[in-house]
Structures are given as structure tokens and as C-alpha cells.
Amino acid sequence: MNKKIKIALIGCGQWGKNIARNLLEMNALMCVYDPESNQAKDFTLKNNLPDFSLNEIYLNKNIDGVVIATSAHTHKDLALEAIKNNKDVLIEKPFCLSLNDAEIISKKAVKKNRILMVGHLLNYHNAFIEMKNNINDGKIGSIKNIRAQRLALGSIRNIESVIYDLSAHDISMILSITKELPIKVIAQSIHHNSNIGPDAICATLFFSNGVTAFLNSDWMCPYKEHRFSVIGSKGSLIFDDTRDWDNKLEFNPSTINLDNTINYLPSNSIIIEQNEPLKKELKTFINSIKSRKSPITNYEEALNVQKVMEMIEINLNKN
Fold it and tell me: d(Cα 292, Cα 86) in Å, to the nearest integer?
């Protein structure tokens, strides 16, 4: 009989409550820990879960994995302690606030033979998965340019910049398609609020094969736009997560001719199966614990995302 995997959730804030709900639905939730959240207390009481301390979570041998959904500056210490106690770990994005911390956690996980996964959620979205399938099948030909727009009037965080809060998603998707790190980054930023970094950034990523990627992240924008486009020699694919499921993924076969004239053709939607990416992400984590196979958004993928975020920060600091 297969052992039922049990997960402890550390952090039950705005996003953590969704993780708690999904793990409970999958009968994988052992406990929720967050001394600063009434949601955690209410959830624990309502669902008759054990009220473990942090130390009890680390020492409990019936807990196989830990999901960390706390503020980014706490990720390193929480993850290291969990790995030290032989727990597999899923860290919600951002992985860390520095490449050095990310490397320390990764080395510890490798040494202890632990699964280390980062919640780059959109890799588990059916629209993005289908987009990659179409790219791999040659539907848009050779890739020329990638454009990522992630704009909203959202939570402005004091201890992390928009790069770590919003750009991490799109960087992860860009690297999933290019399968390599950029060789050069040029970035600009806007600062208006009392947080430690920029409120909005525009960054261009240059890759060795000539592909470029344009990244625009902004948490001050009064309208919401979550659009990710890949432009190729035979057309473009557009993933718009603000649309309903029948129209989230679109193929535009229009192309630019060699003489710079444009061949306009009508777009059409690509039908995809609706899914909850978070549930798929958590199922992947649980399956990785069982199989000991590394997930798509493993520590290596997360380190590459961290490297690009640092490249953007370095370029901004130079400017």
C-alpha cells in the first residue's frame, strides 16, 4: 500500500490560504503554521488539524514535505531548517532575495538528497503548456521575440521589488522557452513608493541565438494586463490570462515579409482544458516526493530565474 504523502504549510496569508485549500482537497495537508495569521488559526480549528509549532513540524517524521509561503526574506532560514530535518521543500516565488541565498539552499538540498521546488506557477498553467507544445511543433516557426506584460494595481511590498514579485513569473516562462540564459540585459526602472526597489521595470533580454525578450512589470498600473506573447517567423502565440478560458491562448498567423510589408491574417483561439495551476503545481510536488524525480521548476530552474533577476538589478544599479 502506498504511503499517503503529508505536507505542512508554513505561511497562511493571501496566497497561503489557497495552498491550504488545495492541499486539504487532496488529503495531503498535515498542518498549517502561521502565528501572525488568524486565517491559519481558523483553518486549523475548522478542519480539525493539529496545531504544531515550527519545531514540531521539523521533527515530525510523518511530515514528508513543507510548503513555504511566507515573506521572501524568511525563505532561506525556513528552507534550510526543513532540509536539515530531511523534508522535501516547495518555496513559493520568489525563491530568495539574493542569488547567494538561493545557491546556499540549493547546495544543502543536493547534499541531503531533498526535492527542492519553487512555485513558478505559470509553468503549470494549461495555456502556457499548450503554447510550448505549439512552439515545439513548429506552429510559429523560428522564435524572434518574446513579450511579457504583467501590470496591475497590486500589493506594493516593502521588502522586495516588483522584479521579485511580478517579473519572476515571466522570467521563468521566458527561460522555459529559450532554454538558455540571456547574454545581455538592459533595464530601466521607476521608483515612486517607499519600498526597497523599483515599482516598475522594463527590461530587454538578449540571447545568443538572436532571440530577444521584452519584459514589462508594474504594480502601480491602474489596469490589469497579464499577457505573454511569442513572435515567430510563421506567426505569433498570445497567452492572455485576463481572458476567459476559451480565449486565453490565441494564434495570430500574420507575418512580416522580407520587404517589410505585413501579411495580415485573422487570429484564432486555441481551445485548452481549464485547470487550476496551483493544484497542478502542488500535485507535481507530491508526485516528486513519491517518485524522487525532479519537477520542472526545480532548484536548477529557480537558480536560473534568480540569475536573471540579479542581472536586471545589476544593470539598474549601473544606470
Answer: 13
For residue 228, the one-letter residue type is: F
Total number of domains constituting the chain: 2
CA angle 14, 126, 206 (to 5 degrees): 90
Using CA atoms, how far apart are residues 312 and 184, in angstroms rounded to an integer? 9
Q: pLDDT tens, 184-231?
A: 999 999 998 867 789 999 999 999 999 999 999 999 999 999 999 999
Nearest to 278 by CA among 131, 168, 123, 166: 123
> What does the block give as the cell for 277?
495551476
CA nearest 7: which of 34, 33, 46? 33
Q: What is the pLDDT of residue 194?
A: 63
Distances (CA, A) of 75 to 71, 85, 107, 301: 7, 16, 15, 17
CATH of the domain at 257: 3.30.360.10
Residue 91 lies in a domain: yes
302 is a domain residue: no
Please state, as a whole number, how many other Cβ atoms lie within 10 Å of the Cβ of residue 269: 14
Nearest CA among 40, 92, 48 for reference residue 70: 92
pTM to 2 decimals? Answer: 0.95
Identify any residues that bridge with 91 across adjacent strands, giving them in sequence order. 68, 118
**Per-residue b or e along 184-197, where b marks 16 or more CB atoms closer than 10 Å to that residue's CB:** ebebebeeeeebeb
Phi first, then psi: give them for residue 151, nearest 5 degrees: -125, 140
Q: Return all residues near 150 (Cβ < 8 A) that are at least 6 apart.
A: 166, 167, 169, 170, 216, 217, 218, 225, 226
Residue 94 domain boundaries? 7-119+278-297
